[in-house]
Amino acid sequence: MMKEIAERLRGLRDSVDISAEEMAQKTGIDTKTYLQYESGKVDIPMNYVCQVAALFKLDTAVLISGEDTHAQSYFVTRKGLGVSVERNKAYKYRDLAGGFKNAKATPFLVTVEPNNEPIHLNTHPGQEFNLVEKGRMLLQINDKEIILETGDSIYFDATQPHGMKALDGQKARFLAIIL
Fold first, then answer.
1. Closest CA to 12 of 62, 69, 71
2. Which among 127, 63, 70 is positioned nearest to 95, based on CA atoms?
3. Which of 16, 26, 136, 139 shows the smallest number of beta carbons within 10 Å?
């Protein structure tokens, strides 16, 4: 799936006739990182996909799935469905509003696999809301570590470095809404 998103990033950039350097500058990252995203050989953070979509006034679903959005009144995502994106082995995202045209927020159902790796921190514009549906996870925002359990939620400034990991050797699943 990352290769397809990378191809759509490159296609978008080509269609608006800007260089990789300009795209990197517009999205606030260095050119080397952008070119890695465009190669499809590295993980493209979902927040970056959302940022590019907003910058070019596209629906996030178009970059994720390649499908145009049409729903304007409502969009139903049935249980277990939705556009699925596996960023890497630790994170699996399911876009829950992938068919709604001009969505103001991007809701994802995120599954985090347990691992012993350090938490990878990332940032993105805007704010984020997380509601833990299953399991326990450690959320790090800057240097603060917060344990969230099933039913807990948090709303935070997503420009602050943040990341999470599943606890207790079990998968954690949460609703993430990126605003």
1. 62
2. 63
3. 16
- Quote the pTM value: 0.68
Burial class of residue 5 (count of CB atoms within 10 Å of its CB; 0-12, 13-18, 19+):
buried
Q: Note whether 44 and 88 are same-domain residues.
A: no
The beta strand positions in 61-171, using DSSP E, are: 83-86, 91-95, 106-112, 127-134, 137-141, 144-148, 153-157, 162-166
**Residue in 129, 117, 123, 107 with CA at minimum distance from that of residue 166:** 117
Backbone phi and psi for residue 71, each to the nearest 5 degrees, phi listed first: -65, 135
Are 110 and 164 within one domain? yes
pLDDT for res 166? 95
- In total, how many domains does the chain have? 2
Q: How far apart are the C-alpha atoms of 165 and 52, rounded to whole Å?
A: 25
Q: In this structure, is residue 168 part of a structural domain? A: yes
Residues 60 and 88 in one domain: no
Any idea what the CATH number is for the domain that residue 153 is in? 2.60.120.10
pLDDT digits (tens, 9 = 90+) for 90-108: 777 787 877 777 778 889 8
Residues 170 and 99 occupy one common structural domain: yes
